[in-house]
């Protein structure tokens, strides 16, 4: 009883504190390796416990296209918390908000207000005045570009030179002139992976005839709070017991989890097909293994009803209801990372732009089974910290085989998890972000003052 009480408190704590996003950055410029080397040299010379301290008293306007539990808005919000922590004055604007009261928007805005972040309507003179007065404007996602013309209008010119545009999208339908026509005029762009940066550079030039501004690749990272839990064996044990009991899963069962908002692009359907196929392989080969379970974290019947109904129908048709568990979308991923054995990152198409959940899983010493596309290839070392498989239907059988491989080789799982943890410690910590993003913000401020 005492253990479960502690676990409940810890889960509640994670529900109230969103993971602070950490960024591992270096500039992206495929035409000039010299610029990259200079930037890296600056990084090595950057020291101090608070590299972002120079942002104290700076006014920062953050413009997000929406405020949801999806990656882009949460990343921007978490950067807002980091800047507030060093004394920045931060103002937040959400372009698209539901007309009726939305509990997610209300909760996230409350978190920001509690941290001293001012929340303003997207339109109106106050928004324009803040944009003009701000030392820095961070525009989040390509879609947010519509706000520039609609709201700023004739006052756009003095704002563009101090805009840092943070882009997360990989899909082609975001490449519209009305979204990104001002990209060449802003101070800089941040993009979450080298793959995505290359994609944006080529697409904007070939499809739209515009040139990207100076662009920095932004690798995400793990907060001190998440790392503390990941490195606390007692906390992990308590969370593991609590979550597994709630799912009806035994301690020695093997859990494979996919933790993303449920949508076709995240590949939950193909993952479940692979999982079912892995069970067939185990049965055909008469392998003696603990029970395998699949956990789908990110369920939201209000948002993706048709697709999620397809998933649930498949589970019923294949008679694997006792092996597949659906969990509602949540900010509290740590309890599930503590409870599972393997993370599956199955984003389709061009893959995940980066995939913060991947490095969070690696912090918990979990191997990762990921698609060989997008930012996942910049995180997972194939054969060392996890195993990669193709996107699309071609990847179903390879993923199934990889599931069986990790299910049957405990030592391989543990070794890959250990190597993943070491990679996180080397590359994906808050310290790395603090040193590097400071250099980018200093450069944007320098340009804005010219």
From TrEMBL:
Transmembrane domains' residue ranges: none
Molecular function GO labels: glycosyltransferase activity
CDD domains per record: GT4_PimA-like (cd03801)
Chain ranges of the Glycosyl transferase family domain: 241-423
Domain of life of the organism encoding this protein: Eukaryota
Record-linked Pfam families: Glyco_trans_4_5, Glycos_transf_1
Cleaved signal peptide residues: 1-19
Residues in coiled coil: none
Tagged with keyword Transferase: yes
Keywords, ordered alphabetically: Glycosyltransferase, Signal, Transferase
Protein name per Swiss-Prot or TrEMBL: Glycosyl transferase family 1 domain-containing protein
Phylogenetic lineage: Eukaryota, Viridiplantae, Streptophyta, Embryophyta, Tracheophyta
